[in-house]
Amino acid sequence: MTEVLSAPEAAAGVVRYSEEEAMRRALRLAATPGVPLGPNPRVGCVLLTHDGELVAEGFHRGAGTAHAEADALARAGEAARGTIALVTLEPCNHTGRTGPCAQALIAAGVDRVVYALSDPNPLAQGGAQTLRTAGIGVEGGLLEAEAREVNAGWLESIRHPASA
Predict the structure, then answer these.
(1) Cα–Cα dist 26/48, whole Å
(2) Domain CMP/dCMP-type deaminase: where (predicted)?
(3) Are 116 and 147 in contact (CB under 8 A)?
């Protein structure tokens, strides 16, 4: 698979995004070809400085791999401190094969989180409240309709789980 995480070309070598542009980039990352359509959601994450400079980006590559936020945070390292995270799905709040993304964002020192779609999974939801409780600014709903399109199949599986 082609690596899609390099920043777009910029005249001065610095890439800047508005929050909407960054969320659109996160949605493109979430929809990366070859990423499984299930059983997990397709998620992208972009980290920006407060003046819009791209710090890092990441995406979830499938069950058992790093979630989008953890991928972006690992790529950013210490540069993640003080950033804005734009994520296509509310950061998870549970431990499964990986740790909770809400806690990873808190530990990294992110200042603000903007997500597109609230997590409808009762096992994973609550990340936004965990972030708020930790003093991190949180906003949901940016490009929510587009995020629903990227995860239409996954959302349907959450609404109507297969009978055992």
Answers:
(1) 12
(2) 17-139
(3) yes
Q: Is-contact 90 127, C-beta < 8 A?
A: yes
The pTM (predicted TM-score) of the whole model is 0.91
User: Which amino acid would we find at residue 135?
Assistant: G
- The whole-angstrom separation of Cα 60 and Cα 72 is 10
57: annotated active-site residue: no
* pLDDT confidence band for 3 (50 / 70 / 90): very low
CA distances from 123 to 12, 116, 127, 163 (A): 44, 19, 11, 18
The span from the CA of 86 to the CA of 21, in Å, is 10
- Quick check: 113 and 137 in contact, CB under 8 A? yes
Instruction: Round to whole Å and give the CA distance between 66 and 11.
Output: 32
Taking the CA atoms of 28, 4, 128 and 79 in sequence, report the sign of the dihedral they define. Answer: negative
Catalytic residue chosen out of the listed positions 3, 9, 69, 139: 69
